[in-house]
Amino acid sequence: MNLKTTTDSLRSASQKLALQNASEKNTALEAVAVALDKNRASIIAANKLDIETARANGISESIIDRLLLNDKRIDGIIESLRLVIGQTDPVGEEVAGWKTPNGMTIRQVRVPLGVVAIIYENRPNVTIDAFSLAYKSGNAILLRGSSSSYKSNVEIVRVIREALAGAKGGVPEAIELVEVRDHDHSDVDQILNAVGMIDVCLPRGGKKLIQNVVQNAKVPVIETGSGVCHLYVDEFADLEMACRIAENAKIQRPSVCNAIECIVVHNKIAADFLPKLEAKFAGRVKLHADERAFDILKKVVSIRPSDYSTTGTSAVVECSRSECIETTIIPATENDFGNEYLDYECCIKVVDSIEEAISYINSHNTKHSESIISESRKNTRLFQAMIDASCVYVNASTRFTDGGEFGFGAELGISTQKLHARGPMGIKVLTTTKYLIDGEGQVR
Description:
The chain has about 450 residues and is α/β, with parallel strands linked by helices. Helices cover about 40% and strands about 20% of the residues.
């Protein structure tokens, strides 16, 4: 990849977009939405090739689920794109304005960042999400997806560029896709060191990818985070509600970053709650239980001593209920706490107080999304005040941490940093501000 040539083209495109109004950008984005609908067969066909390769390479089904595109998901992508079209264009928005004593007028207005790069893994829907948000906010974008979704991304970008070329005022040069070769990450190093060519870089993927970008980038980075999310079941929790939320937050899509990886349970209700949780998860989730949780669970299920050990060997346990469903319960190790499974696995931690729960979560999370189940207003407000995360829920699933669910349409990812942006990132994250000052000959 000739990065200088590519970014020069993107810079020129961003300058064209900076002069366009919302109507012109929306017209181009609507053309893309129509083209995605018309070309869904070719997109799904390309995606099928990616999935076949992924399965041949032994990729887990939970990760393949992140890679999958089908008619339903393309419908969702198009719907998200149209939500972006319907949003207010942030470019030109006056953030603040005032007149100085000497008569100058100062306005602070939103402007595009310029050239944005995103480095991401697996999920080809990110290609459209990132493009639509960048285009609507007047930015050109460089996409560096993973090899596992490369064929899907190539086809999606082809469709986008052709749609933009055919739309009145469309700027097809505003999107570029990096050619990806297996086991070759030299292009990533080029992007991270492209000072003066790339205005901001966003990593979206697993812990290893994010750490590489944050630690090695010389260009500005908006850090997204891996998702070690927790559900705390308080002593004042509605246990049936807690089970429903745990099921949704863990099982609906375990491979995504807003799925929970650990359930923290107050000791006073652990003996009542954990059997209910085991019944809800039976046969579907491997439980890594700490010592107190394991002692409770082994009273619920019949465990043969030969089936488990303190080293964490899997235990297939026979359910004592009338309808026998095999469940896997193993003693947790220290490595289970703070681990992002991205699969049908979850660790269980028993605590003696809400303060202990808060301390444990803050020391093991990735600042993504945390939830408390409790009927105590005092405890829920304490939890929201003290938990260090971008999104803190009360009596709701962490699965709602999503740009679409927040009303943003698409999202660039979930920022877990504390500067500029935090939480689901929509259009405004790709803008900065500048001051426009009008005078009448004033000198200092």
